[in-house]
Amino acid sequence: MTQLYKTIGLIGKPNHEGAKATIEALHEYLRLNHYHVVVEHSVAQSVDIKNMSVHPLTEIGELADLAIVVGGDGYMLGAARVLSCYNIGVIGVNRGNLGFLTDLAPDNIIEPLEAILKGESRSEQRFIIEAEVYRHGKLKSSNSAVNEAVLHAGKVANMIEFEVYIDNSFMFSQRSDGLIISTPTGSTAYSMSAGGPILTPNLNALSLVPMFPHTLTSRPIVVDGNSEIKLVLANENYENLQVSCDGHVILAVMPGDEVIIKKSENCLRLIHPLDHNYFNVLRNKLSWGHKLY
């Protein structure tokens, strides 16, 4: 039978015992079933596998047909920002806490993985966003985010002032601790903790969630996903301002800078088991009630 996936990349959280055990088990299973397996170099140093084919993450994106990421949502986000640049399917194995992006349980991985490798799966596109910082009209820095881009002060509880434009139309000005611009994927992450709405993954939408605004009338708002969001920082702000992408990548921002946030051309292609259901995930992760009968 023709293999749907020929080259499979294994990516995992380095120096994590659970991830190490899962990577080793997956490597053995895949090699026994005649798949070409490539292991990401940072985790390769901590696993006990002979004759590994070791590559950096970018090369795995170029070489592999499928990537299996072993870790929590945080580690998945880091890998996803890179892998979204390539036409590669991504499966998550949960070795973290909540696991909104990581479907497979490490203690029951082979059976659902076998089905996925046979093509018994569903594919889902998750769009990501780009954050760009402009100073005097020139691009100073940029990065991508799967969950959210957050404008905030470098110090805790330090209020900042900024204006928000949607497609160059003035929306509002605000004094607050910052602003969270979230994708549907990120709506169950930092945005939810700040009181933002949960957006189902198929929506083409972005949510703007103020962080401790200095007004009682400020509320989260959802805008079209194709919108260009521009944040203009007041000149009176302190100099220590930042835009964080998924809580991992920090872009420095100065008073008077403009921050542009918009949908990226790249998408993250998640591969799910056939029985995957987003509302089941929400119900289990957020301890929602089950059906009455």
Number of helices: 7
What structural category do the secondary elements indicate? alpha/beta
End-to-end distance = 43 Å
Helix content: 10-25%
Strand content: 35-45%
What sequence of helices (H) and strands (E) makes up the elements? EHEHEHEHEHEEEEEEHEEEEEEH
CATH fold-type name of the largest domain: Tumour Suppressor Smad4
So, the CATH homologous superfamily of the largest domain? Probable inorganic polyphosphate/atp-NAD kinase, domain 2
Number of domains: 2
Number of strands: 17
The CATH class of the largest domain is identified as: Mainly Beta
Shape: globular
**Compute the gyration radius: what is it?**
21 Å
Based on the coordinates given, report the CATH architecture of the largest domain.
Answer: Sandwich
Q: Could you give a short account of the major beta sheet?
A: 11 strands, mixed
Q: What number is the mean pLDDT?
A: 93
User: Which stretches are poorly predicted, pLDDT < 50 over at least 5 residues?
Assistant: none
Structure description:
The protein has 293 residues and is an alpha/beta fold. The protein folds into two domains: 7-119, 3-Layer(aba) Sandwich (Rossmann fold), CATH 3.40.50.10330; 128-265, Probable inorganic polyphosphate/atp-NAD kinase, domain 2 (Tumour Suppressor Smad4), CATH 2.60.200.30. Helices cover 20% and strands 40% of the residues. The chain has seven helices and 17 strands. Strands 1, 2, 3, 4, 5, 6, 7, 9, 10, 14 and 17 form an eleven-stranded mixed β-sheet that branches. Strands 13-12-11-8-15-16 form a six-stranded antiparallel β-sheet, with no helix packed on it. The longest helix has 16 residues, at 17-32. The mean pLDDT is 93.
